[in-house]
Amino acid sequence: MENFQKNRDKLQARLAENSVAVVFAGQAPYKRGDEQYPFSPDRNFYYVTGIEGENCIFFMAKTALEVTTTLYIPRDNGILAKWVGANITVEEARQKSGMEAVEFIDSFRKDFAEFIFKHNIKTIYLDLENRDWNALPSAALSFAKEIREQYPAVCMEDLYPIFSDLRLIKEDWELERMRKAMQITEEGFLAMMENARGGMMEYEIEAYFDFVLTKRGVRQKAFQTIAAAGKRGTILHYVENNQAAKDGDLILVDAGAQVDWYNGDITRTFPVSGKFTQRQKMVYNMVLAGHQKVMEAIRPDVPFSRLNQVLKEHYFQELKKIGLVDTMEEVAKYYYHGVSHYLGAETHDIGRYMDRKLQAGMVLTVEPGLYIEEWEIGIRIEDDVLVTEDGCEVMTKNLIRTVTEIEEFMAKGRKA
Q1: Can you give the residue ranges of the Aminopeptidase P N-terminal domain (predicted)?
Q2: What percent of the chain has pLDDT over 90?
Q3: pTM, rounded to two decimals
Q4: Whether residues 66 and 155 fall in one domain
Q5: With 63 labelled, which of 45, 215, 311, 372 sits at a CA distance of 20 to 30 A?
Q6: In CATH, what number is assigned to the domain containing residue 46?
Q7: Shared domain check, 107 and 57
């Protein structure tokens, strides 16, 4: 509860005087008939409320006299509770959020209009993130259209860059959740390595990861697992996981557990048979060396974009040695994504990258990869890293990553 109050304090410090901010929890869309997709709260809403339920609204007002907050929740859902469970109560909402003012959602627009008029509000803040022109509008974007019609003289500001800054530096309680998610993710990877065999379907190997998560009480993954054997490992977001993993194949697995809405994100590439071929080992060690170079480059005040440049320079030298490239531009044929992204309440956590310098307290991934389709080799090695005052802490350091460590561990699994 105190954590979310602290987050609200951070938010109000960024708002202009005579302004209001509105953040929507969201609502799960329907699949078909009366079945909905699983609900996941908008992370900015959760960040300032601690509330996990859908169809709620957070309202903050900052005037010359005071800062006020109100949480709007659905009313008691009556007999429907026997089918889907009861809506959150006013007292539960107060306890979870630490907010005393809790009202019902059907009074929001009336309250909003009265407040805007009474206090002569000049600015309205909404989370206006919109990455896809063709996507269905969010609740905030739809509400923004209403605001334009009802209050054409009021200034509208975007909360997205504000939340991007606020969520960038992780608090201890956030790191605690992430460490738990990462530790469970590590256990899942060891289970896959221990049980993988030639001839298994990719989804069979993935199932060992899923079992560990379920056994540990994890009901949500950070994202849809990638389990890509052989040539399919060169497809970055291959998620079908429905082909056979043959002896001689590498399998690239990118997976993560989610704990209390915070994520782990790890990738390991290992031989289905338990033994790397010489060519696979050569490429793997090339990626692993790049992984280490990027780790060594991480420290406060280093431009985020520098990390990717360090890796590309390394790849150019190594790929040139084995005759795959002649120019830096040709590296893009075998390495075609960034080496890092922010990690937190979202797997690709919000925030700008290219114009940002690293700061202590950021959590990011380090995930160099090489994808040589003609050799049917796709390799990525990904760990989660906390930027510290003098470098970085590898939060997933306990999960094996060298050729020797992987082969020895998998050999033990085959003897058991």
Answers
A1: 1-134
A2: 88
A3: 0.95
A4: yes
A5: 45
A6: 3.40.350.10
A7: yes
